[in-house]
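Worked problem 6 (solution included).
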Amino acid sequence: MASGPVARQSAMADFEAARSEWEASFQHVPDEALAYLKPGDDYSLGGLLTHVKWVLVHYRRVLGGIVAAGFGELGPQDAPGEAESAGQKARLGMTPQQRRAALDEMARLHSAVVAAVARLGESDWGRKAPVVYGVGQDAFPTSPEDIIGWLRDHYREHVRQSADLVTAWKAGS
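Solution. The predicted structure is:
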């Protein structure tokens, strides 16, 4: 990955674009489909937004932890069972009334990640820290640049998935 202020600005602009793409895609989910769970899937259509919010919370914690630890080794940042609980909520979906609040919360979480990156010194953008993501796992070298890339890709992964799920919901309606 390229480093430096231009690479960082470009990555952050693409992160913003990916969020916009995800939001635009989610606007195409009919209210009636927000609770749709395709057989065999982990997330309902509305639950995709719940899942996206959880991933933002998780990686915001990791980013904050890396900085607080001075880029030293960082242990798991999530409470035991928290990811599983978020997964259960993502299967349930949401009501049309919950959609607006969930989108507002996602925007707040996204802004918190952006603000955390904005506070970083230029030399910290690509700086790796050994992060242990789960109990008993080996440390994985992680930089703020990596986190932004993962979050950007995560938004885009669900753009296509939501469209596919809307198609499946329409076919089954």
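Discussion: The longest strand covers residues 129-131.
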